[in-house]
Write a structure and sequence with these properties.
The chain is α+β, with helices and mostly antiparallel strands. 34% of the residues lie in helices and 29% in strands. The protein is built from 10 helices and 20 strands. The protein has helices at residues 14-24, 50-58, 62-68, 108-121, 166-170, 235-246, 252-258, 302-319, 325-355, 361-373; strands at residues 6-10, 29-34, 45-49, 70-72, 74-78, 86-91, 103-107, 125-128, 132-137, 142-146, 151-154, 156-159, 178-190, 198-202, 208-213, 218-226, 266-275, 281-282, 285-287, 293-294. Helix 1 (14-24) runs parallel beside helix 4 (108-121) and helix 9 runs antiparallel to helix 10 (361-373). The longest helix has 31 residues, at 325-355. The protein is globular. The two termini are 24 Å apart.
Length: 376
């Protein structure tokens, strides 16, 4: 008998859907709810490192991800000069194993659709536009009331509901989520034929300008600047600022900049960070993914770490016959040191950029990829 038979997962992002898939296909009854109206609202572009691809293969969706995404094995570093000069080309470590690409880019709503479809296929119940209202637990279970008026008792509640996690607040877990001093402009645009991998431009008027192919015809482009209050800008003003910042970068950026026409595809957010100390649970409620640890996307490991949380948690739940301190201690031991190391490395790269320090970026990237190549 597994430790749980009836589970509520709050949040249909990577961590939440991964939990739903693994539990439902093992015969656990799973309800998956998300506050968004539908799966298409869940994000823009995403870069998936090899350890994320390894997790997606375990979930049974790698072939579909490969079909809809864009896989590659190298990383370019370019100069912010009039030609966008390629100064280094590195073969990336295949952190998911030699039989998987090093990296794949993906349109995030498409990835969300694939994962939700997989969750439904294996038996999870999924509801969008639904949020939790109340949560009360005792030693035997958790009583939850949802915004659609339904009320049910669960063996376990998994809060995979992001940086501002309702679940985390509901069980009284306190954490200081702090800005790192960087903000990022993102856009989803057509892919120039010359772009076949991620290239990063360090320096110029912004900290980083980069892009990641997300499919045969699409691209996720981004520019990282000093964090500013951009909350009062309209879509056209935001597009104009991103185009102005992009004017300092050339090579493929010349074509990318010319395609920044759809103002609705441009968005701006700040980088933030936190890592919860152990334990990540309070009784029969646990938080994972961005609710437990969040870092700037400077090393593109946020999605991978969320997926790893889900796979480790569900492995332990399905192998145990009780929700007890041994399970939660094992979960913390396998996840907190690894997630913390990735967060710290991501922050270190950001500090180097902000301080104008010429740090060993390739070395840092190599160390992280070597770490995450090991199964969690």
């Amino acid at each position: 008998m597994t430790a749980v038979r009836d589970v509520l997962v709050i949040g249909a992002g990577l961590a939440g859907t991964a939990c739903a898939i693994q539990l439902a296909r093992a015969g656990v009854r799973v309800d998956l709810v998300d506050r968004q109206a539908d799966v298409s609202a869940l994000g823009s572009g995403i870069t998936l490192q090899g350890n994320a691809l390894r997790a997606l293969r375990e979930l049974g969706v790698w072939e579909e991800v490969k079909e809809h995404g864009y896989a590659y094995d190298s990383l370019g570093l370019r100069a912010p000069d009039p030609s966008g000069t390629l100064v280094a080309e590195m073969t990336e470590i295949r952190s998911g194993g030699d039989d998987l690409p090093a990296t794949a880019g993906m349109y995030r709503p498409e990835l969300a659709r694939i994962l939700v479809d997989r969750a439904v296929e294996v038996g999870a119940g999924c509801r969008f536009g639904v949020t939790p209202r109340t949560l009360n637990q005792d030693a035997e279970g958790v009583e939850v009331e949802l915004s659609d008026g339904s009320r049910r008792r669960y063996d376990l509640v998994i809060g995979a509901d992001g940086v501002r996690s309702w679940t985390r607040q509901a069980v009284g877990i306190q954490v200081d989520t702090t800005p790192t001093g960087m903000g990022i402009w993102r856009a989803f645009v057509p892919r120039p034929e010359s772009v076949t991998r991620t290239d990063l431009f360090y320096g110029g008027p912004s900290y980083i300008a980069g892009y990641c192919p997300t499919g045969p015809d699409t691209l996720y482009a981004y520019i990282v600047e000093k964090a500013q209050d951009r909350s009062g800008l309209g879509p056209q003003e935001g597009r104009a600022i991103m185009r102005d910042l992009a004017a300092a970068y050339h090579g493929p950026w010349d074509e990318i900049r010319g395609s920044l026409e759809n103002a609705e595809s441009v968005n701006y957010t700040w980088f933030e960070t936190h890592v919860l100390p152990a334990p990540w649970n309070r009784g029969r409620v646990v938080v994972i993914g961005d609710a437990a640890h969040v870092c700037p996307p400077t090393l593109a490991q946020g999605g991978a770490q969320a997926l790893e949380d889900a796979l480790v948690l569900t492995e332990l739940l399905l192998a145990a016959d009780a929700l007890d301190d041994r399970l939660w201690t094992a979960f913390a031991a396998r996840r907190i040191p690894r997630a913390s190391a990735v967060v710290e490395a991501s922050l270190q790269l950001g500090r180097w950029l902000q301080d104008g320090v010429r740090g060993d970026v390739p070395g840092l990237m190599h160390d992280v990829m070597t770490l995450v190549r090991e199964t969690p």
